[in-house]
Amino acid sequence: MSITPTSNSTFNFIDAFTLSEKTNLNISILSLRELDNFQLDSSNIPDLMMIPIYQYNDVTRILEQEQLKDVKTAVILPNLHMKDTIRLYEHDIDGFFVKNMSLNEIISGIRFIHEGYIYVYPELAKALHDQFLTLSSTLQSRPEGLLTKREWDVLLEISRGNNNEIIASNLDISDKTVKNHVTTVLRKLNVNDRTNAMLLAYRKGWI
């Protein structure tokens, strides 16, 4: 049995039924108030629970929900500049969406999560980087021997949202060399993609 979306469970005027139909997944969108009264059992486990939040403390309420510990969970932020956005990445959340995303962007993000990755809305990733620059004085020591100097340079470029062509230009190396470095960085950090490499580096205070 799937969750029956309520008529007021909307995401940028897109309801959970539409998202479920478009992705062929069981998507639920619940406000924090609805979540407090929601009982999850084996008959109504969604593929993804999406929850709008308006302040950092809302995340704590989500994480305190014992019933969600084995459910993929994404948050929907009110905008790109929510206070304490950077602290959200300290938590085990599968997706970070923004209220004004288009239907195609939302669907793409949901599918990304379903494939086992963490999804971060691209403009939100840039906002995260901008916030991080203001906190750069709190950088922690990089683990000795984890990456080479050039690999750290590549990881920093990745965190800035640069593609391989731009990285090659900035570091004055070939595209092929960039690809090799990126592959090595992902392997050494034990992550599946560039976004997760960036998030790990932010969380650890390496960049």
From TrEMBL:
DNA-binding recorded as keyword: yes
A Pfam match: GerE
UniProt-listed SUPFAM superfamilies: C-terminal effector domain of the bipartite response regulators
HTH luxR-type domain sequence ranges: 140-205
Lineage top rank: taxon: Bacteria
Keywords of the record: DNA-binding, Transcription, Transcription regulation
Name of protein: Response regulator transcription factor
